[in-house]
Amino acid sequence: MTPNGSGLVALAATKFTAVHYDTIVTLADAATVALDSSLGNEFYLSTAAGRTIGVPSNAPAAGLTQTIHIYVKNTDSGSHTLTLTTTGAGFRFGAEIVAITDIPAGKTNHIIAKWHAVDSRWDVVGMLSSY
């Protein structure tokens, strides 16, 4: 590894052979769910009601980015709505994903969001439902 003059380190001819595992951070169930992005990249919420995920706290420092994956399991016998907070440094949707779909009874939805360092927003880049 050699410095490349930009403050970054070039990884010349580096081959990664080890598997990388992430710890899943369990979120506390509440009407508005708190998510601290400094605790990890994988988050799990188990709930039996409609919920709102608040603006994630502790976003990456200037010039850095992060991708978070939020698993939301509906443990109830009915469908529930999940809302993402879109104000301030919260989540934002693009043209492909414009909202989060309801979570059917007993199923899990997956939400993937990427920190946009320039705009200071969590861009929702993926949403998979009914697992």
Number of domain units: 1
Element order, helices and strands? EEEEEEEEEEE
Roughly what is the average pLDDT, rounded to an integer? Answer: 91
- How far apart the termini lie comes to 42 Å
Spatial order of the strands forming the largest sheet: 3-5-7-10-11-9
User: What proportion of the residues form beta strands (DSSP E)?
Assistant: 35-45%
Low-confidence stretches: none
Number of strands: 11
Going by helix content, strand content and strand pairing, the class is mainly beta
Q: What percent of residues adopt helix (DSSP H or I)?
A: under 10%
Query: What's the gyration radius in Å?
Result: 17 Å
H/I helix tally: 0
- Large-scale geometry: globular
Largest sheet: 6 strands, mixed
Provide key terms for this protein.
131 residues, 11 strands, 0% helix
Model description:
The strands form three sheets. This protein has a six-stranded mixed sheet with strand order 3-5-7-10-11-9, with no helix packed on it. A three-stranded parallel sheet has the order 4-6-8, with no helix packed on it. A hairpin with a 4-residue loop joins strand 10 and strand 11. The protein is globular and about 55 Å long. The protein contains no helices and eleven strands. It is 0% helix and 37% strand. The chain has one domain.
List the helices and strands and how they pair.
Layout: E1 2-3, E2 9-10, E3 24-26, E4 32-33, E5 42-47, E6 51-53, E7 67-74, E8 82-84, E9 91-92, E10 108-116, E11 121-128
